Amino acid sequence: MSSPDKPTLTTRQGHPVHNNQQQRTVGSRGPATLENYHFLEKISHFDRERIPERVVHARGFVAHGEFEAYGTIGDEPASTYTRAKLFQTKGKKTPVTIRFSTVIGGRDSSEAARDPRGFAVKFRTEDGNWDMVGNNLQVFFIRDAIKFPDVIHSLKPDPVTFRQEPNRIFDFMSNTPESMHMLTWLFSPYGIPKNYRTMRGSGVNTYRFVNDRGEGVLVKFHWLSQQGEEGLTEAQAAEIQATDLGHASRDLYEAIERGEYPQWELNVQIMSDDEHPELDFDPLDDTKIWPREQFPYLPVGMMTLNRNISDHHNENEQIAFGTGVLVDGIDFSDDKMLVGRTFSYSDTQRYRVGPNYLQLPINRPREDVLVSTNQGGGQMSYGVDNRGANPHVNYEPSSIAGLREADESYREYRPFVSGHIVKAPIERQNNYAQAGETFRSFTDFERDDLITNLVNNLSQCDKHIQEKMVHHFTQCDEEYGRRVAEGLGLAVS
Ligand code: HEM
């Protein structure tokens, strides 16, 4: 007898399943017959249970929560800088979903690896979704999207031995001087956060805020952990991963189950929208930090995670973030990484999840946002988007019925650009200064840990690669290069 707490098992066609223990066979010993629909449905669905894992950030963990706006950006009303509705009113709450991740390992890999951590937040606003797809280290290895497949190939396992090889990583990095700043963070204790709750997040790439008057400013986003920031040494990480590959997911899940809701404060840094020739770096270069003394952190609101997911596949494997997913009041900058990322995310998701990935409950905008498009069809089409009263009109313009374009009074931000079309590096590269400053800003313990980790990894590399890396570190800071050279037993020139 079926009851609400133990319902009858059915097939996906809704037919009751009377025997879930035995296949249909000729006599009890077989052979098996193949017309048993329940068996075929069960086994062939199982054969398709996995979708391709993400090409990067395969291992991650998702939680839900809310973002509460302060209504201000620093001391100013939020409207001074942006018309994005989620920031305007003090106390305004916007539902969010967050996915934390590691980058290089596969879906079941260790969460104690030395690796940047992904920090991707989906804001479910009344104007549709806004995704902020960031990491925990403020900067990145490269500044041009065309190099992304190469940096990732060097960090991923060797295509023959399938082992992550320091020789391949540092071969690439030693030919990529702009990576020195990121490497300085990555090999310090910040390179293995203790868990997801005790790390910060950053948008890394530069965006624009646009206000009601259509004026734009450059903006960088930062999430400050209210749990504090803590990292692990290699020895501590090794001890954890000896018995638990998923300690960070477990930590977050259990904290939320206990009602200990983790929080991060969103801060922004703001700069006028021009090239800033007075700076020794390019504001759009994502290998650089905007110095906090010159561009102070301005608090914007608080995020609280207060609800765990109910299904890993639907809410974690299938969630799709992208840097192109912006709302009115938040716009692109000319950052060369950002444009490449914006193509890459939705491109991979159409392959990884499918062309109708935006119809899935985890990805579609919240209920009160009416999705009205003339897109239709494709694999796994789940429904038809709103097309108004007349279902025959799936094109625009039409004099009969259908959809119309949004309000014309929409004030688009219109930056002016002119110049030759070239393939050229940026002028203000300054690859070493901030890496040196970061090195000098570390405590003695952090500096010692950084040197130990670099020496341990570089000692597995060819001598010419070691020498090249020491050359780069010396440009960053004389002590930095000297200590790595001493650790490797290299003569300091
Ligand atoms: C041009 C450079 C980059 C490219 C082409 C790129 C591309 C990708 C791709 C293809 C994915 C997999 C997405 C999916 O399967 O759903 C991904 C995931 C991710 N990337 Fe990037 N990425 C780049 C740079 C960055 C940077 C600089 C950051 C940090 C600021 C970052 C943060 C993330 C995060 C957090 C995820 C995981 C999203 C999730 O949890 O689903 N990426 N990236």
TrEMBL record:
Which residue stretches belong to region Disordered? 1-30
> Any idea which residues are catalytic in this one?
H57, N135
GO cellular component terms given for this protein: cytoplasm
Show the ranges annotated as biased composition (Polar residues). 1-26
MF terms in GO: catalase activity; heme binding; metal ion binding
Give the EC number(s) under which this enzyme is classified.
1.11.1.6
> Which Pfam families does this chain map to?
Catalase, Catalase-rel
Q: Where does heme bind?
A: Y345
Q: Which UniProt keywords apply?
A: Heme, Hydrogen peroxide, Iron, Metal-binding, Oxidoreductase, Peroxidase
Which part of the chain is the Catalase core domain? 10-404
Q: What class of enzyme is it?
A: oxidoreductase
GO BP, sorted A to Z:
hydrogen peroxide catabolic process; response to hydrogen peroxide
Q: Which cofactor does it need?
A: heme
InterPro entries membership: Catalase, Catalase_clade1/3, Catalase_core, Catalase_haem_BS, Catalase_immune_responsive, Catalase_sf
The keyword Hydrolase appears for this protein: no
Q: What does this protein do?
A: Decomposes hydrogen peroxide into water and oxygen; serves to protect cells from the toxic effects of hydrogen peroxide.
Which family does the UniProt entry place this protein in? Belongs to the catalase family.
Q: What is this protein called?
A: catalase
Recorded source organism is Micromonospora pattaloongensis
